[in-house]
Amino acid sequence: MFLTEEYKTRRKKLKELMGSGVLLFLGNGECGINFKHNTYPYRQDSTFIYFFGLQLAGLNAIIDLDNDTEIIFGDNLSIDDVVFTGPIRSLEEQANEVGVSSVSPSKMLEEYLSAANDKGQQIHFLPPYRPEHILKLSELLNLPSDEVSKNVSAEFIKAVVKLRSIKSDAEIEEIEKAVHTTAEMHYKAMEMAEAGLTEADLFGAVQNIAMANGNNTSFPSIITINGQILHNHYRGNLLKEGDMVLCDCGAENFSGYAGDMTRTFPVNKTFSAKQKEIYDIVYKSYKTAAEMLRPKQLFRDVHLAACKEIVVGLTELGLMKGDPDKAVEAGAHTMFFQCGLGHMMGLDVHDMENLGEQYVGYTDELKQSKEFGFKSLRMGRALEEGMVLTVEPGIYFIPELMELRKSENKFMDFVNYERLEEYKNFGGIRIEDDFLITNDGSRILGPKLPTTSEEIEEFRNSKKRL
Amino acid sequence: MFLTEEYKTRRKKLKELMGSGVLLFLGNGECGINFKHNTYPYRQDSTFIYFFGLQLAGLNAIIDLDNDTEIIFGDNLSIDDVVFTGPIRSLEEQANEVGVSSVSPSKMLEEYLSAANDKGQQIHFLPPYRPEHILKLSELLNLPSDEVSKNVSAEFIKAVVKLRSIKSDAEIEEIEKAVHTTAEMHYKAMEMAEAGLTEADLFGAVQNIAMANGNNTSFPSIITINGQILHNHYRGNLLKEGDMVLCDCGAENFSGYAGDMTRTFPVNKTFSAKQKEIYDIVYKSYKTAAEMLRPKQLFRDVHLAACKEIVVGLTELGLMKGDPDKAVEAGAHTMFFQCGLGHMMGLDVHDMENLGEQYVGYTDELKQSKEFGFKSLRMGRALEEGMVLTVEPGIYFIPELMELRKSENKFMDFVNYERLEEYKNFGGIRIEDDFLITNDGSRILGPKLPTTSEEIEEFRNSKKRL
């Protein structure tokens, strides 16, 4: 929780950007796992956290610009609740801490919106990403459920993106805390990994650190010997000599901010020569990208530069061929690097993804591409001071994709399919860190983890931190 | 996953119980945390697991009794998915493993149901417990969302409850695995607890064991020095000398079955005299209840016997007074024991709670009470061989409840409010184990954990397992 002034400032800026109408903020409810009262760990909506701070289930809020009113809608607990939850401070008291003086029972929200509608006020709301939002909006606004998404407010989205994209000092401090815990998670995985353990052993240990030091992980940890599977959540494999472990995980601290880092390391103390060759290409791509980060730099171009490094490296190895620039232009790098170079990070690990990638990572002039490989580039637009984002190049040998592209005769001028056969069971490598854009460049967030292949091997041998 | 025959038998029995109509089984989808693609750990619907085994998001199924047809509705993955998820066996192959030969694309389900409806077939479905179910049912059955819940099939509920209440040998084996992992979680908490650690440290370690050895915890772990708060999920407190830790947690294994146990132990090596007195009353209540478990025994009466032990013990201590039977009749025990003695356990930690407690724990003749204390008794009906359930008495000193009842002049003949003042900061104690009803009594599931106050102290001193 930040100081009251921080929330007031955020809402003030939002009001200046929006001008008129009623802004509707849906807080998240509890979500039942296998029955209603067995709930997943509670997570408030990030935009609600950003403007109203309160991480309680069942709240909604409005800012009525035409009447200069801010109201949090929610209900206080009964004695029956208190038996199960313990004493909880009144909603009025909590609202006061985020600078909102008006609190109203939940059931009044529908009435408020209906009256606003009758008065011809425009009601702005953000895109629903949980079924509960669709149901709630359908009920509150008297819309058929399949009409809800069509009525989201682009103006509201743009204003929220504008504000949340640039992190305040207080936010950067919170993100850095989350990144610190994230680094601890990585150190743990790199310390304990050895042949005979399972992926799940590492997964549990990493989860432990996130939950003992914060709210949760910021996304389901990917800890796998099959790094070529980008979002691999299976964790039943045994670690074997010669395998590499790809560990992509992050902590979410109590204030809701995320960290997100990836390291790939050998189960042995050292990489094999073949692994090290590929690792060093990924590292070069990472380094090239990191060094380009600065205000006004188009992130799309950072992505392309990172892709080119991968192509250059793989060409030197004989896995690719031809002119690297043309290969990237043709999209041949997507044989090995199928996703985007990075994404903004903040209250969401993919910050504001629910508001729409086009709005968050692109502009009216710069549209997100729908092509394979490019469509997962979540960020293309020019960087600005105060942005926080990840850089995460990788090389992934996906047998299914290799076979498919070969059968399509695709990228024949750029890919050496014959040579590629030797890499069918190689796996995948990713390196990922979190960066803050500063006034003249960037700063890596959190402590420096072992990153080069030499540093990784040194740590796997000595267990001594940098 | 069980043998194909097990699933076929379950469906065969269900068909025999139901007779006619179309049975609709909604599988669970993914659930976005803070944006659509950042999902909570996936959990399939338990009834879907029970009859169809497959733990994949986005499936639905029907059993058409009138046409003797079983169909799983779902979609195979595209290459875009495979990049992120890795190769996945075809749905046809997986369906075949649970004895279902017919698979159809998701989009055909609506058509199927609409045709069935046109032919006058009754469509049976179970109560929705996630907003996604309401939306899906509303769309599939062309019902307004607020009409969905009114149309659930009591006949279908009763048939499912009848089958799922009695566990097969294969199920008991799975439950016992989950209880074993649960015992490991408890040993870990009891081994590591010491002054200076936080509740979160224990929480993380316990979570680690569940996630390294199975699917997840079977519910959010309650690990607290404020045991009087029944579902306490705050974990920021420091453990201090003199505190007790209440640890209520359970593992869910990969097949979806739950364990659920509670122990309460001192942060010191031994309980204080005052703590031990209360602990021993809870243990006596636990033991009395456990010994009563056998087929045909009304669980409501086991609950009442457990309540009476608590009243007798507290009367001896001078915290209660008067005739214990009359005290229980008046509900005076709910000052200290506000919830039910136990619940069935299986694929859900509160097994089948989403189907309605009245259907699961009661009968047409025996109705669930709505009174404070009784309304959380999830199980009242006669026990049967093959049932699995928890026994979990406790004594909780809830300051807010004590003040409220005193101000209402309630239970004046049974509660010594003056004496009670000394226990305002005592906290709470619970003991919980999982039992299988056998043909002539019961069997405790999993390994025996330290349970009596002496065993707990012995373990806290020696760390030696029983």
From TrEMBL, chains A, B:
PANTHER family: XAA-PRO AMINOPEPTIDASE 3. Keywords: Aminopeptidase, Hydrolase, Manganese, Metal-binding, Protease. This is Xaa-Pro aminopeptidase. Residues 2-134 form the Aminopeptidase P N-terminal domain. Its EC number is 3.4.11.9. The keyword Manganese applies. InterPro entries: Aminopep_P_N, Creatin/AminoP/Spt16_N, Creatinase/aminopeptidase-like, Pept_M24, X-Pro_dipept-like. Pfam families: AMP_N, Peptidase_M24. It catalyses: Release of any N-terminal amino acid, including proline, that is linked to proline, even from a dipeptide or tripeptide. SMART domains: AMP_N.
